[in-house]
Amino acid sequence: MKGNGPLAGIRIIEVGHMLAGPYCGLLLADMGAELIKVEPPEGDIARKVSPHFIGPHNAYFASLNRNKKSVVLDLASSEGRAQLQSLAATSHALITNLRPSAIKKLGLTYASLKECNPKIVCVALTGYGLEGPYSEAPAYDYVIQALTGVMALTGDPSSPPTKAGYSAVDNSAGIMAAMGLLAKIVEGRGGQVDVAMYDVMMSQLNYLAGASLNAGETVERLANSSHPYMVPAQIFPTKDGWLTLFITHDKFWQKFCTEIGRPEWASDPVFATMAARRENRSRVLAAIGEVLMQAGAAEWVRRLAPLGIVVSEVGTLAQALEGDLAKSRDLVVPLGDAKSGLRAVGAPVKFDGFSPGYGMPPLLDEHHQEVLGKAIA
Fold first, then answer.
1. Structural domain 11-205+328-372, CATH architecture
2. Cα 5 from Cα 265, distance rounded (Å)
3. Which keywords fit this entry according to its UniProt record (predicted)?
4. SS3 label, residue 22
5. How many CA atoms lie within 13 A of 46 on its CB side?
6. pLDDT tens by residue, 208-258
7. What are the backbone dihedrals phi and psi of residue 300, each rounded to the nearest 5 degrees, phi first?
């Protein structure tokens, strides 16, 4: 680490696998916390998920587990549970994203650990909650997107329901778990934190849920990723590539009309206001689409962006990773020294006076002696 980091001195145990729990731990480790990753004898399944290996390191695992220390404990054994309790006695928090029955059986709850450390914060990151009639139902990112309506809201109306192109549920739940953990640490009291992936995604549907609850609105998919209330706010095909155009205020609409050679639209009652454009959505979008087909996406960005209009080409992940914006934010970073060949996306939260060091992901049980010796001493 370059500097101590805002979470220096905070020790957190992670008993997680795959994505949600490890992503939560990753965020905290990047902020300077000491992250002890407790793995079963066979290791986190994420060590084998991706077909891509850089030396001994799996690319999937590496993307979620830098700056952590790995310790193998068999929590199904009395010895393993005793070692976990020794770790818990010197730790501020524990994160887990196992099934609720496993969390309770393996002693990963506040009720199980409070005797050895009454101030420990235990975060259970599950599908549907630590308790309740649905707690043991299988939960994966795909299923939560299906159950909450996210899939039904995504994609073209003429196509099947579509999942988000990345693990939106797992990542969002990991962020919420980190927030809940830090809130309890700030409070200064130990306790149980219950974060359900289902709850997180329902919360993120905020204004759409509000429209359904308070106005009985049936929220449906719209073509070309259109916003339900703002027009134009969607993607458009152009002469060369796709363009994202998002106009929220009428003053930007007026600038847009002038630049594209349709100044009359700024005063036409069908086009002039946000309410009018929403009311006449089909007609407005058809007219805009016809104009935008006259040039390529890059050309429209060159013309419209300087006017303050929110506009962008639709690019690929590879283009984003190699682009100037990512470089300006120091977002693509090497893990360990540059010789390792491992790269990752860097920390999304920046702090004055602190830059995280990006260490290698741990080999399985790499820190057993260091961590357990420290905990038992």
1. 3-Layer(aba) Sandwich (3.40)
2. 53
3. Transferase
4. helix
5. 23
6. 999 999 999 998 899 999 999 999 999 999 999 999 999 999 999 999 999
7. -65, -40
